[in-house]
Amino acid sequence: MKTILIIIGIVLLLVIGVQSYYTYKLSQQVQRLSASKSITTTQSQPLSSFNWQTDKWNPFEEFQKMQNEMNSIFGQFHSHLNNTPSAIFKGFNFHPTIDLKEEKDRFIVKADIPGADESSINVTVENQQLKISAKTHKTHEEKSGADILRSERFIGQFERVITLPSAVNTAKMTTQYENGVLTVTIPKSQS
User: Fold this and answer.
1) Range of 138's domain?
2) Three-class SS string for the chain?
3) pTM above 0.85?
4) Average pLDDT, stretch 158-166?
5) Whether 104 and 61 share a structural domain
6) Which of 125-129, 146-150, 169-173 has the lowest mean pLDDT?
7) Considering the domain boundaries, does residue 45 fall inside one?
8) Is 6 domain-assigned?
9) Is the pLDDT of residue 52 over 80?
């Protein structure tokens, strides 16, 4: 197993080396072309106006750009999965949106938890950490006449933890759940 990993590592190093060599050669050609100023882009701008920085090539910036592009690709894929009608994908990624508002004497937290049963909502505060957890249940049916043509169910569980900016009085904390919105009011500590 170790020899396979070593071989893979050597191959990767060779590929990176070859790519670096060709990138360097390409950058030299671009630099020569931009210096001649005779070639222009399709928008009639000289290549030198694009601010080529071939002598300051930073591989870490290139890796960061690749990482950002990969995050974008996977983010689009993930959002596509969450928009599918299949309840299989939706059950794994329920994260309610939370608003934290600070007033003079208290904090007000609002969390969107549509479809939650009020008895399944659990709110605790410990060491300035507000923890909200709940189970949600959502049913979607499409009917045509007496036959059900499609029926989907969503059952999920989540837990969100946020840090409150200052100490609070948990004994006077109140909660209210109405129209799928949980409102938690926590007075600030007087000490």
Assistant:
1) 94-187
2) CHHHHHHHHHHHHHHHHHHHHHHHHHHHHHHHHHHHCCCECCCCCEHHHHCCCHHHCCHHHHHHHHHHHHHHHHHHHHHHHHCCCCHHHHCCCCCCCEEEEECCCEEEEEEECCCECHHHCEEEEECCEEEEEEEEEEEEEEEECCEEEEEEEEEEEEEEEEECCCCECHHHCEEEEECCEEEEEEEECCC
3) no
4) 86
5) no
6) 146-150
7) no
8) yes
9) no
